[in-house]
Amino acid sequence: MKKQQQFVATLCFFALLLLQCASEDLPFKAVNLGGWIVTEGWMMPSLFDGIPNKDMLDGTQVHFKSVRLNKYLCAENGGGSTLVANRDIPKRWETFRLWRINESTFNFRVFNKDFVGLSTQGQGIKVFAHAAEPGITETFRIVRNGDNPLLVRIQASNDLFLQAETEDSVMADYSGSLDDWGDEDPSVFEMHIVKTLQGEYQLTNGYGPDKAPGILRGHWSTYIVEDDFRFMSENGLNAVRIPVGWWIMHDPDPPKPFVGGSLQVLDNAFAWALDYNMKVIVDLHAVPGSQNGNHHSGTRDGFLEWGDSRIPDTVSVIDFLAQRYGSHPSLGAIELMNEPLAPGVTLDSLMKYYKAAYDAVRTYTATAYVILSNRLGEANSTELFPLAAGLNHSVIDVHYYNRYSDYFKNMNAQQNIDYIYKQRSKQLQEVTRNGGPLSFVGEWTADLYFHNASKQEYQKFAKAQLDVYGKATFGWAYWSYKCDPKYWSFKWMIENNYIRI
Fold first, then answer.
1. pTM surpassing 0.90?
2. Residue 242 · residue 266 · CB < 8 Å
């Protein structure tokens, strides 16, 4: 019995030692390696420069206006009905989302997620939006005018062109002259591009299977290199948060159009982190179905389609990552999902997923932290506490940006600084509790909503956030390490003396 007690005591000692070692580096001073393994076009727009018709990538939202009727095409009721051309002002039912097949051929998805196609009844010339999945009859070619590329004709799968002779219906039966682009031609439409996406899906499908692998692998091997880990370590950082996409678990042959090779990139990052005594936070940034519809979520067309049915597949990704890196000495944490958006992602679904994914991580590691990202949108900042309080080594992640809201639009620099010290400090205190999950400001930036601030104002704004976010018990992570917009680039901000850690 005494030997048993000694054995148990020894196990407890080493368990406590492991827990102590796991928390020695806290709070983390980290930076996001955004735009590297998961594409975000705004961070490095030149990645998209070689794509033909790059203004018409997957997820581009367009309106079509009949030049003859001066009315917009509309999928009545958001879908499940014929197309008409009777709207003076385009809104949701008048918006079509492109699924790109090649540079000139597309499927059109409407508000209720149906696809536009030809009627299967009669002569097959009426145009409907009622297909759950796109097929041959839901495929259209957009022919752009050489002098004005926003003037277009739309060729249907029957080789005829769409025309709007009356407001009541749109037909696919125009076979007249294609030389006349005048205002009286019922087959001519103005195409208004109202929103675009520039993420991983848009990049890989835009270049296609022949060119995309070379483009991405060239980017991965040059955007972040070993010397960047030296730079980060020498400038006061002790961790990196690395966004990854769900397709990484299928490497080296992920589902099309995604490109294989990202797993080796993540392996390299772990090796470099070990060499420079840094920790890695693996962040599942893009989940199956998209958790927020944003370009960084791997979405094809901007629809949020993550929910209960996607939980098993998403847990599988976490299981894969935890199995591969759970015993790696550089693993600091696994973040289960980045920025789920309310109300599309319900609290009930998210809690079910977080618990299942947490259990998957714990299968492989008892000491790595597990990060639960708060929902964006209309959500209570403490809504995850009932779950997180019962999970050992759990962390609540909040993202603080003084932008993306008209509230900040007219603030000057000093007002932004005051907001950090007063409001952000209060918000952080709400998610920082003794004995509860740790708090993490997983994304923030020293960029301001306006762009005529002085260097001193940027310095003060950055310092204010370091002062406040430094009180997060798990730490903070700047967005991002490197990107074209300079104030978003931690590397540029350090090199030009805007930030001091």
1. yes
2. yes
